[in-house]
Design goal:
6-stranded parallel β-sheet, 249 residues, 8 strands, binds uridine-5'-diphosphate, alpha/beta
Length: 249
C-alpha cells in the first residue's frame, strides 16, 4: 500500500522499493516545497534508537527508505516485510535516468575536493542530456554554510544530492532546510565517490545476495568494528522491536 510505513526501533521507514521511491520523488518535484529523502541503514537506525534528536530528524523526512540488508531483515523479524533494499545510490540513479533530457537539474554537494566535478563528467556521459546545476565539495567551515546554500539556490537546481555521510548530511539538511529552494534533497552518503569512480560499489552478486557488507569488510577491513553494529541491531530488533510496531497500531 502506498504510504505504508514500518516502525523500526522508532524510525518510520517507508515500505517502498527503488521504483516506488523514484515515483514518489517525481511527485515531490510537482510540489513547491522542500522534500527530504534519507536512506537509513542498520547503523543509522541504531544511532537514532539511542538519540531522540537524531530520530526526530530522520522522521522529519518526507521519504525514508531501507538501505541495507539489515533493515530488510529487521522488517521480516517484525512481520511486515519490505521487498528489497532501496539504497540511496540506486534511487539516485533511477531519478537521474528519469530527469535526463528534461528541464530539471541536479546539484552535487559533498565528498573530497575534485570528486563532485569528476562525478559531473561521468554522470553526463552516463545520462546524456542530464542538467547538472553545480558542484561543491563537502569540506567547509560552519561559517561558509549560508554562502553554500545561497550558491545552490542561485543555480535554480530542483534536486540536491547531499553527500556528507551520516549523520552529517541529515544534520546539514535539518539546519538549512528552511533556506533551501530545491524541491528534493537526498542524503546519499558516499554516492558521489561511486559516480566519480573514486570508490567502487560491491559487484552485483554481493548486492543481490545481501552480502555487500561482506564485500566492504574485505575491501575496508578497518570497518570491522563498525560492522559489529549489525548483529547488535538484529538483537535489539528481536528484543525491543515489537514495542515500536505495536505503538503504531
Ligand atoms: N564527507 C564530506 N564531508 C565531511 C565528511 C565526509 O563530504 O565532512 C564525504 C566523504 O568524502 C564521503 C562521504 O562523505 O564521500 C561519506 O561516505 P561514506 O561511505 O563513509 O558514508 P556512508 O555512505 O557510509 O554514510
Amino acid at each position: 500500500m502506498i504510504g505504508d510505513k514500518i516502525n523500526i526501533l522508532g524510525v518510520k521507514v517507508d515500505m517502498v522499493n527503488i521504483q516506488e521511491a523514484a515515483d514518489r520523488i517525481m511527485e515531490f518535484f510537482e510540489e513547491d516545497k522542500l522534500h527530504k529523502v534519507y536512506t537509513p541503514n542498520s547503523e543509522i537506525i541504531m544511532a537514532a534508537y539511542k538519540d531522540e534528536r537524531f530520530r526526530d530528524m530522520l522522521n522529519d523526512a518526507e521519504l525514508l527508505t531501507a538501505d541495507g540488508i539489515g533493515v530488510v531483515y529487521a522488517s521480516r523479524i517484525l512481520k511486515k516485510p519490505i521487498d528489497e533494499r532501496a539504497a540511496g545510490y540506486d534511487i539516485a540513479c533511477e531519478v537521474l535516468d528519469r530527469i535526463k533530457g528534461t528541464d530539471k537539474s541536479v546539484y552535487l554537494f559533498g565528498s573530497k575536493p575534485g570528486v563532485a566535478e569528476l562525478a559531473r563528467e561521468k554522470l553526463i556521459e552516463k545520462y546524456p542530456g542530464l542538467r547538472i546545476a553545480g558542484t561543491h565539495n563537502g569540506y567547509f567551515k560552519p561559517e561558509d554554510e549560508p554562502a553554500i546554500v545561497e550558491e545552490i539556490n542561485a543555480t535554480g537546481a530542483d534536486l540536491l544530492f547531499v553527500c556528507l555521510g551520516a549523520p552529517k548530511q541529515e544534520e546539514w539538511l535539518s539546519r538549512n532546510a528552511k533556506d533551501l529552494k530545491v524541491r528534493v534533497a537526498m542524503g546519499i552518503g558516499g554516492s558521489l565517490d561511486v559516480f566519480a569512480g573514486t570508490a567502487e560499489r560491491a559487484p552485483e552478486f554481493y548486492c543481490k545476495h545481501g552480502l555487500e557488507w561482506f564485500y566492504r569488510l574485505m575491501k575496508e577491513p578497518w570497518r570491522a568494528k563498525r560492522m559489529l553494529a549489525l548483529p547488535k541491531f538484529g538483537a535489539t530488533v528481536l528484543l525491543k522491536g515489537r514495542k515500536f510496531t505495536k505503538e503504531e497500531q
